[in-house]
Amino acid sequence: MRCKKNTVTLLLILAAVLAGPTAEKTMAIEKLTYKVIEKQGEIEIREYQGYIEAQTVVNEEFTKAGNKAFSRLFDYISGKNETEKDISMTATVNQQKTGKKIAMTAPVNQQAQQDQWVISFVMPKKFTMETLPKPQDDRITLVPVQAYRAAAIRYSGFWSKAGYLKHLEKLQKYMAENKLEAEGPPI
Question: Mean pLDDT over all residues of the chain?
């Protein structure tokens, strides 16, 4: 998705604090490539290269969505695919709101306001759409993501809705003050 100069993707990054032997193993995990264009305090404007995601959609509340989708996606990279081979885990797992909320008065169904989230694992750079094994689970799709510009804020701690909303507010305030427009929902 190509972005206009003042259009960016909202990106909130939760940095896990690791200690001991786990930290050494984590160092080898592939991360998304980006270039910092601008930095102001804890907020960065970044340019990301294109990549491929394995995505799944879950209908779950904010804090439970990631857990529900994680095992599904982890199964895919752990060999539940057409080649039955493992795919290396990358450091990037995304959660993004999808769908639209429908007013309670609309005669749709009883769960019209239920949350729907797209959870995705970024695939290692060595793969292309042609070389990635197809998932055995039809709830997982492989999606190419074009290069884009993002406004990002990094924070640490436990994954919680309160922490997410606090940092989202900071990011949105920065964007408003700098006349930046979000291209889609925050990730």
Answer: 79
Please state, as a whole number, how many other Cβ atoms lie within 10 Å of the Cβ of residue 183: 16
Q: Which of 122, 155, 151 is nearest to 17 (CA)?
A: 155
Whether residue 43 contacts residue 180, with contact meaning beta carbons closer than 8 Å, is answered with: no
Strand partners, 39: 44
- CA dist 15 and 19 (Å) reads 13
- Cα–Cα distance between 98 and 171 in angstroms, integer? 20
Residue with the larger pLDDT of the pair 90 and 129: 129
> b or e along 130-163 (b: 16 or more beta carbons within 10 Å of the residue's beta carbon)?
eebbebeeeebebeebeebbbbbbeeeeeeeeee
User: Amino acid letter at 117?
Assistant: W
Confidence of residue 23 (pLDDT cuts 50, 70, 90): very low
- Within 10 angstroms of residue 108's Cβ, the number of other Cβ atoms is 11
Instruction: Please state the pTM of the whole predicted model.
Output: 0.75
Q: What is the DSSP string of 88-127?
A: PPBS-EEEEE-S----TTSSS-TTTT---EEEEEEPPTT-
Contacts of 117 (CB under 8 A, 6+ apart): 57, 58, 60, 62, 65, 66, 69, 95, 96, 97, 98
